[in-house]
Write a structure and sequence with these properties.
The complex is a heterodimer of chains A (about 170) and B (about 80).
Chain A: E1 12-15, H1 21-29, E2 37-44, E3 58-63, H2 67-82, E4 85-93, E5 95-97, E6 102-110, H3 113-130, E7 133-139, E8 142-145, H4 150-157
Parallel strand pairs in A: 1-4
Antiparallel strand pairs in A: 2-6, 3-5, 3-7, 4-6, 7-8
Helix pairs in contact in A: 2-3, 3-4
Chain B: E1 2-7, H1 9-15, E2 19-22, H2 29-37, H3 41-46, E3 54-57, E4 60-62, E5 73-77
Parallel strand pairs in B: 1-5
Antiparallel strand pairs in B: 1-2, 3-4, 3-5
The chains are: A alpha+beta (about 170), B alpha+beta (about 80).
EC number (chain A): 2.8.1.12
Subunit structure (chain A): Heterotetramer of 2 MoaD subunits and 2 MoaE subunits. Also stable as homodimer. The enzyme changes between these two forms during catalysis.
Family (chain A): Belongs to the MoaE family.
């Protein structure tokens, strides 16, 4: 006779498939009576850089298998160490995507809203600058890799964490 | 010593797929970057000191001064842009 253990959903998922926000939040709460707040962030693919609607026709997401999962697991550990949260989950899609597609989900549960709001933003700021993903956009001019933004490094700096992802960093440097 | 080299995104398009590299003991990430940059015009441009390039050793972000060991996995990639 085989014993079926209750499936513990992984905290981090990198997948090509789409996901369902409601389902993920329900599974994150999973009958935890200590949860009083859930905050989720949903990132979606835009069809433009500036004002020109429809400029971006497709997007390809590349990642570093293995490092991506490790990096995000470490981020979730850091969020648990910093904030009083119950659980966190990160789903990031890779492969070919289209404008309006869901691309990333960060969901955090906690006893009270303040910690969940903060932890969710912390995880997203961290992910934007430290998780090995790369976006390639297709426009009428062809496909091009998206540039990193200094503003994302500045967002992480609010948490007292230095990042030089967008600029000339010591990382891999001379 | 031998290390495993990986590239991602635009650097993968310029430098190609995974490969192994024979290195003298004590080689650093920055030394490998310079070695790769000397392979040709396109690698020199992609890995020029003025270009932001990030590196990871055994899947952890590393600085140029990081010293490599036999069997290490070294990856070079552009600044990350997920989310």
């Amino acid at each position: 006779m085989s014993v079926t253990l209750p499936a513990v959903p992984p905290r981090v998922r990198i997948q090509t498939a789409d996901f369902d926000l409601g389902q993920e939040v329900a599974s994150l709460r999973a009958d935890d009576g200590g949860v009083g707040a859930v905050v989720s962030f949903l990132g979606t693919v835009r069809d433009r850089h500036g004002a020109q609607a429809g400029e971006v026709s497709a997007m390809e997401l590349e990642h570093y298998p293995g490092m991506t999962e490790k990096a995000i697991e470490a981020m979730i550990d850091a969020a648990h160490a910093r904030f009083d949260i119950r659980a966190a989950r990160v789903i990031h899609r890779v492969g070919p995507l289209k404008p309006c597609d869901q691309i990333v989900l960060v969901a955090v549960s906690s006893a009270h809203r303040g910690e969940a709001f903060q932890a969710c933003e912390f995880l997203m700021d961290y992910l934007k600058t430290q998780a090995p993903f790369w976006k390639k956009e297709t426009t009428a001019e062809g496909a091009r890799w998206v540039d990193a933004r200094v503003a994302d490094d500045q967002a992480l700096a609010r948490w007292g964490i230095a990042s030089a992802n967008a600029g000339l960093a010591a990382e891999g440097g001379r | 010593m031998k290390i495993q080299l990986l590239f991602f995104a635009s650097l993968r398009e310029t430098l190609g797929g995974p490969r192994t590299l024979e290195l003298p003991a004590g080689a650093t990430v920055a030394q490998v970057r310079a070695l790769l940059a000397a392979e040709g015009e396109a690698p020199a441009e992609a890995l020029a000191p003025a270009r932001p390039v990030r590196a990871a050793v055994n899947q952890v972000l590393a600085s140029g001064e990081a010293v490599l060991a036999d069997g290490d996995e070294l990856a070079f990639f552009p600044p990350v842009t997920g989310g």
